[in-house]
Specification:
220 residues; Beta-Lactamase; 2 domains; 13 helices; 4 strands
Amino acid sequence: MVALQALFHAIAQAQDEQTLRLHISAQMSEYFSATRSGLFFFAQIPLANSKLQKALQIALSPQHNPVTRYLLERHAPVHEALVVEPKTWKLICPRADHWHVMAGPIVGTGQLVGVVGFTREQGMPAFDSQNLTDLSALCMHISAWLATVRSQHPLLQTERLTPREVQIADLVAQGRTNAEISTELWITENSVKQALKRMFCKLEVSSRTQMVAKLSTASK
């Protein structure tokens, strides 16, 4: 059985959001005895997977999902039984592998910047108050880690680039092509191109060379 302290240690050792997700997803699922688990940073979803973005927009709609509404309003962990009757939840989310759900907030600068989510399938026990307490501690560690990691990279502060855009900028500075960047970050080449367009606009440059030069100056 994974200990909560082991999860805290894994969070502290992660170098970036992608590494964090890879290192703790399986451990989180085991700790909370979840059928599925997910760790999402909203800034990365559009580049990583447009289909996932659309699915999450529906699933996380506060108008239709009381769990999401609770997260947005309170910035506190929640499971479905706290906010809705069982029969109503089955109408909102009839999937057998989402019979029970629990979610916690990742918060930065007073805003919801990500979500940690878990599901259990039909026949499994519901998430309880102890699960919420443990998830609260986990979310606090992730939120604190995120603030530290982002503060250590000057480009995230001075140029308002997302963590994914910073990764792309670093690879561009290393001379990588769009195809090489897409392979390394597990995103499509078109996603890289679209990201570069947004980055050029933010930085008010028109070429990769100008972008690298400006970011090099900003990081000094």
